[in-house]
Amino acid sequence: MATSEADEVREYRMPELAEKAGITVRTLRFYRERKLIPPPRRDGRIAWYNDHHLARLRTIAGLLERGHTLGGIAELIAAFESGRRDVGELLGLPGAVASWPSETPVRLTPEALADYFHGEVTAENLTTSLDLGYLAVDGDEIVHLSRRLLDVSHTLVEQGVPLAAVLAAAREVREHVDAIAETFVTLLRTHVAADALERGEDVGETVERLRPLATSVVDAELTMAMNRRMRAETDETPPGGHSGNQ
Asked: Boundaries of each HTH merR-type domain copy (predicted)?
C-alpha cells in the first residue's frame, strides 16, 4: 500500500480495493470499464486506487440496494460530474430522493411546472404527485424524478386527459408494475442467481445483463394487450358509432 503525500489519501491496489469494498476483482474491473469509477493513478504498470474510489464503490453498492440499475447509476454519476447539483443527493446523501429509481430527474420552478401543465397543477394534484414520489421539494425548486414520466404526463394532458386522471392511472400502473417486477425478480432468484454463483459470476452483473429481457417481455405483452383491447372496443361499437343498448 502506498500513500499519496499530495492529498494524504490512502491508496490501494485492485485486489485490496475490491476486498475493502466487498466486491470481486472482476466486478471492480466491470465498474471501471463502465466508467462508474474514475481511472486509477498509474505508476508504471501498477494501478493505484484511493479512498475516493472506495467511497464511490460504497455509494454504488448503496444505490444498487435501493433498486438503481448500473445504467442508471452511470447516468447519475455523469450528471453529477458535469455539475448537476441535484444529483448529489441521488449519489448517497440522505433524503427522500435518495431512494428514487434510475431515471433522469428534472428541476423546475413552481411557475415552470404550472406552465407545463396549463392550470392542472392544483393543490390536490401536487399532494398526489408528492405521495407517489414523482415530486420532491428542494428549496425554491421542485424536482420531478423522471424526465420520461414528466414528458408522458405532459403529452397526455395536452391530449385532453386531466392531470388528476393521469395520476390516478399512474397509481394503478405502479401496482401492476410492482407485481410484474416481483415476478421477474423471483424468476431470476430461483433459476439464475444460484447458477451464477456456482459459475463464479457476480449476481448483480447477471441480473443487470438480463434486465432488458424483462423490459422486452413487458413491452411485447403490453402491445398485444392494447391491440386486443382496441379490437374489442371496435367489435363492441355498432355501425353509426353508438354502443350499448338502445
From this structure: 11-79
Half-sphere exposure of 48 (CA within 13 A, CB side): 12
CA–CA gap between residue 84 and residue 153 (Å, rounded): 24
Nearest CA to 49 among 91, 2, 81?
2
Domains along the sequence of the chain with CATH: 11-67 (1.10.1660.10), 100-161 (no CATH), 166-235 (no CATH)
pTM for the complete prediction? 0.52
Q: What does the pLDDT profile of the chain (246 residues) look like in tens digits?
A: 444 444 456 899 999 999 998 899 988 988 888 888 889 999 888 899 998 888 888 878 877 776 677 777 777 777 666 555 444 444 443 333 333 345 688 888 899 899 889 889 999 999 999 888 888 887 788 888 888 899 999 999 999 999 999 999 999 999 998 898 888 878 877 777 766 666 666 666 666 677 778 888 888 999 999 999 988 888 766 655 555 554
